TrEMBL record:
NCBIfam families: matE. Keywords: Membrane, Transmembrane, Transmembrane helix. GO terms for cellular component: membrane. PANTHER family: MULTIDRUG RESISTANCE PROTEIN. Its main location: membrane. CDD domains: MATE_eukaryotic. It is a multi-pass membrane protein. The chain crosses the membrane at residues 65-87, 151-172, 184-207, 219-242, 249-273, 303-323, 330-350, 370-395, 416-439, 445-467. This is Protein DETOXIFICATION. It comes from Camellia sinensis. Residues 1-11 have a biased composition (Polar residues).
Length: 489
């Protein structure tokens, strides 16, 4: 019995320990990659490690060849991942738009339900799914293909159990919103919207592990195509349900839940029938129910990390409401946060790519490739963020008119744009470094760093500069990202 428990613990942690211990000697003939896509990625990784280890090549030539190989691998991963996150963000945004056309109360209710309740669940479930990112990435790099399916199922079990208390929170959302000071009418409408999102919780529980399972194998295009097709279906169903059938807020949120389940079913069918996943998906296994506590501990660090970031943005809104002329401060901040939130999806895509790259290379025992991948993904993400910042600065006097026609708000947004630009640049670094840490299995470390930088540095410093030195809402946008990025480096 003791031997069985010990073997389960070894099986759970073996891929992670390969990131901090010398890897075992590889077999003379490594297992054949499970698909042509995987074979191409495997060959690219071998070529990259060979180039980086070839000290006979001149340094600059070695860096040039290695950079070209790594860039091809990176964009094959990051491009579709960015599109998936942008499309998922667009589905939620479109639901708020449809709700907004029902009336001001409905728009406020959908926004409150989304930012106050749904965003908490999204961050928690996405963070809880990070163990799959670490374990699958390293197991795949170590050619332990059969374990990927076990980790997928184990994560689904853990996330489904996590969804049960979240369901209780959703059911009690009206009482919670009234307790924190929202009006009864707004709380009732927001609760109606949230009730329709309860099925979405359990779609999260399956979708996030599936995404990480596929990403760890460099299979990212199918999720992008499925998400794009689902967005089209979502827009059509939302129009029918909200305007033709007249189901209102509950209809809009139920369609959003249904759309997420469509993505889940389509991706799972792809895993089952695709030849690319035959080696990694071997059917349902009882091993999925073992080692759940260790799996939960690994997941909880990243869950805390994402929840802290989510809560920080909500605290930011509350603090802005205490400033002089709070209506103007909140409106300007809302526009900047909407822009930042959309562009942040690009960084999240690079975050996923960084985690996969580092996990794969550490699992394969290629520390040089892992370190080089960290450098390349950070440089690329930083350059993309600089371009975003330049575009925002160039459009700072007109960009707010997408959201509002008020000239006063437009002027306030233009005044905030330099700070927004700094935030965008820092967002190009910090999430990617978080992804690297997750790829190494350092979720708890990331959580500690976030607690310190967000709550012991960012909020106190922002309040000091915002209230004492009259910087207003400006400093809140960028201070915490500055300290996070510096600490990760």
């Amino acid at each position: 019995m003791v031997t069985s428990v010990e073997s389960q613990a070894t099986e759970l942690h073996q891929p992670i320990t390969q990131s901090i211990q010398p890897p075992p000697l590889p077999p003379l003939e490594p297992p054949e990659p499970p698909s042509t896509t995987a074979a191409a990625a495997y060959e690219s990784r071998l070529e990259l490690e060979k180039v980086l280890s070839d000290i006979q090549l001149p340094f600059f030539k070695r860096m040039r060849l290695a950079s070209w190989i790594e860039l091809k691998i990176l964009f094959r991963l990051a491009g579709p991942a960015v599109m998936v996150y942008l499309i998922n963000n667009a589905m939620s945004m479109s639901t708020r738009i449809f709700s907004g056309h029902l009336g001001n109360l409905e728009l406020a209710a959908a926004s409150l339900g989304n930012s106050g309740i749904q965003l908490f669940a999204y961050g928690l479930m996405l963070g809880m799914g990070s163990a799959v990112e670490t374990l699958c990435g390293q197991a795949y790099g170590a050619h332990r293909y059969e374990m990927l399916g076990v980790y997928l199922q184990r994560s689904t079990v853990v996330l489904t159990l996590t969804g049960l208390p979240l369901t209780v929170i959703y059911i009690l959302s009206k009482q919670i919103l009234i307790l924190i000071g929202e009006s009864t009418a707004l709380s009732s409408a927001a609760a109606m919207f949230v009730y329709g999102l309860i099925p979405q919780i359990f779609a999260y529980a399956i979708n996030f592990p599936i995404q990480k399972f596929l990403q760890s194998q460099s299979i990212v295009a199918p999720s992008m195509y499925i998400s794009a097709a689902t967005l089209v279906v979502h827009l059509l169903l939302s129009w029918v349900v909200v305007y033709k059938i007249d189901l209102g807020l509950i209809g809009a949120s139920l369609v959003l839940s249904l759309s997420w389940w469509i993505m889940v079913v389509a991706q799972f069918v792809y895993i089952v029938v695709s030849d690319k996943c035959k080696a990694t998906w071997t059917g349902f296994r009882m091993e999925a129910f073992s080692g759940l506590w260790e799996f939960l501990k690994l997941s909880s660090g990243s869950a805390v990390m994402l929840c802290l970031e989510t809560w920080y943005m909500q605290i930011l809104v509350l603090i802005a409401g205490l400033l002089d002329d709070p209506e103007l401060a909140l409106n300007a901040l809302a526009v900047c946060m909407a822009i930042n939130g959309l562009l942040f999806m690009v960084s999240v895509g690079f975050n996923a790519a960084a985690s996969v790259r580092v996990g794969n290379e550490l699992g394969a025992g290629n520390p040089k490739s892992a370190a080089f991948a960290v450098v390349v993904v950070n440089v690329v993400s930083f350059c993309v963020a600089v371009v975003e910042a330049i575009v925002v600065m160039a459009l700072r006097h007109v960009i707010s008119y997408v959201f509002t026609s008020g000239e006063t708000v437009a002027d306030a947004v233009a005044d905030l744009c330099p700070f927004l630009a700094v935030t965008l640049i820092l967002n190009g670094i910090q999430p990617v470094l978080s992804g690297v840490a997750v790829g190494c299995g350092w979720q708890a470390f990331v959580a500690y760093v976030n607690v310190g930088c967000y709550y012991f540095v960012g909020i106190p410093l922002g309040c000091l500069l915002g209230f004492k030195f009259d910087f207003g809402v400006k400093v809140h946008l960028s201070s915490h990202h500055f300290f996070l990025s510096n600490y990760y480096f």
